[in-house]
Amino acid sequence: MSLFLPYEKMWDMPLGGVSQEKQVPHWAGNIIYGFLAVVFKLCFRYRVDGRENLRGFKDTSGVLVVSNHTSFLDVAFMYLSARPSQWIRFLGRESLFDNAHGLVGQILSRVGAFPIKRDSADRSAIKRASRMLKNKECVGILPEGTRRNKGSMKPELHSGAAFIARMGHAPILPMTVRNAEKVKEKGKFFRFPKITIEFGTPILVSDFDFLPKDERLDACTWYAMRECFALSKRCAPEEVDMRELFPDSKDYAEAFAAHPIPTHTTGELAATLGTAATAEKKASAA
Question: Using an 8 Å Cβ cutoff, are 131 and 53 in contact?
């Protein structure tokens, strides 16, 4: 049992997936999961809807999980939603890993998180994430980059999520953590609302190939985030006002109204991707 390992070593080790290489030790992650699951169940009575949309990819394909960002608790609930049989490996702000003299970095790395530099094309983080996806692991990302209506930073949409999914040959799975923003509202005491975590249906980056090449990744991320907000607001995606949410980003509502994106199920994609992977493995062995 390893009590301490260098951060960089754990960032490059598998956690779940199909690799036969030595994995990040599970004991710390399991202890953290057990503690959080009990406390959060008592405090927030949380439940997970649509989890089968995530479970269906287990050992068959990597999947990039994306969510809107309303609370500092979003990541914790996303982590709990996949356990105990899967791990979501999160891209976290680089500065978090050095907090508390490195203790926070140890904890984050033990549960599968790894750093990304803000406001830059962090090639190391992108390569790590795509390698994890190719190993049939789950990777989680909050494309807004910061909590909505919190602090001075304004949420923005970047194409990084779609780029990572394309590099990792993996589908994107939208999700949301509903009511987490009510836990701590400005000027109010902590509250304990009932939390619902909900997974939507998967999206393929290749379905956006009808658009100009330089817009495909931006449009894919835009579409995935609209699905997240639709889950959050419990409405149809077409009812989400993305112009209001992201005034500085191009709006693709008319493009998708004229060219609807196909709806996929996890079972359909898992079967297709599994067959393709088997065929590729046979071809490489021949």
Answer: no
The structural domains of the chain, ordered by start, are 7-285 (3.40.1130)
Residue type, 57: F
- How many CB atoms sit inside 10 A of residue 223's CB? 22
What are the backbone angles phi and psi of residue 93, rounded to the nearest 5°?
A: -55, 130
Q: Which residue is it, tokens 């999700």?
A: 175
Give per-residue pLDDT as tens, 42-75.
Answer: 999 999 999 999 999 999 999 999 999 989 899 9
Overall residue count recorded for the chain in this entry: 286
Q: Rounded to the nearest 5 degrees, what angle is found at the Cα of 205, between the Cα atoms of 204 and 208? A: 105
Contact 197, 260 (CB under 8 A): no
What DSSP character marks residue 150? S
pLDDT digits (tens, 9 = 90+) for 175-216: 999 999 999 888 888 899 999 999 999 999 999 999 999 999
Q: Can you give the pLDDT at residue 259?
A: 97
Sort strands 196-199 and 172-178 into parallel, antiparallel or unpaired.
Answer: antiparallel
> Residue 69 burial by CB count (10 A; 0-12/13-18/19+): exposed, middle or buried?
buried
Answer yes or no: are the C-beta atoms of 96 and 104 closer than 8 Å.
Answer: yes
Where is average pLDDT lowest: 135-144, 151-160, 173-182?
151-160
| Interatomic CA distance for residues 103 and 30, integer angstroms | 17
Q: What is d(CA 169, CA 189) in angstroms, rounded to the nearest whole number? A: 44
Share of the chain above pLDDT 70, in %: 91
DSSP-based three-state secondary structure for 178 = strand
* Residue whose entry in the numeric block shows the structure tokens 């909050």: 142
